[in-house]
Amino acid sequence: MGRPPPAAPAAVARRAAIVIALVLGGCAGHDTPGDAPDAPGPDAAAVDASAPDAGVCVQAFPVCAAPGTPTPALCAGAVALTPGMALTGQDTAGGGYGDCGASASGIGGPSRYYAITIPPGQVARVVAAPADVTAPALVRALDGCAAVVATESDRGGALTDGRAAVCLANAGAVERHAIIAVSQYSGEADCLPLVFDLTLELRDPDQGCQTGG
Q1: Across all residues in the chain, what is the average pLDDT?
Q2: For residue 199, what are the CA distances in angstroms to 55, 65, 166, 196?
C-alpha cells in the first residue's frame, strides 16, 4: 500500500503540534499521562493527525490505518469466545483499529476482537492459526478496550506456521475478563487483513501453558 504524498508545511506544523500535545497529555480517555507506552512498537507509526478522530492514541496506530480510527465500538462489541469451541474462517477484513493497547509488536493490521472469561484458579490459552502459514498472526490480550498496553502478546513465525498464542492466568478468587485482539503481524507499514481459526483452552496451573504457536 503506497504512502500518501508529503503534506504542505502548514499541515506538517499543525500535525506536529497535535502529536506533541497528545504525547504530553496521554491518550484521550485516560487520566494519567504516564500510562501511555514509552515508545510505539514496529507497527506503531502515527496516523494522519489531521483526521477528525486522531486525538485517540495517535502515536499508537500504523500509517496505513484509515482516517478517523480508532473506532472503540469495534472493541466494545467483542465476540464471546467459548472454551473448547473453534471459531473457523475468521477474517479481520471487516475489523479495524478499535483499541489503544500497544505491545512490542505494535497493533498489526485490522483487528477482530473477542471476549474471554477465566474462572478462578484457571489458565486460558488462546491460539490464532492463520489460513496462510506465511501470514503470521498477532494476538494481544487487553484488560479492557481502554487499555494502553497489552498484558500479553505473541506473534507467529516460520517455526509455528504463523500461529500465535497467549496464556492468561487467573490467580484470584473471582472471574477474570479480558479482550483478545487478533490481527496479522504487519511489520512497519503493511496493514493486511488475516484469515484465521481461533481456539480457547482452559487449563489447571499445574498443566503449564506455553505461549507461541
Answers
A1: 77
A2: 34, 27, 11, 10
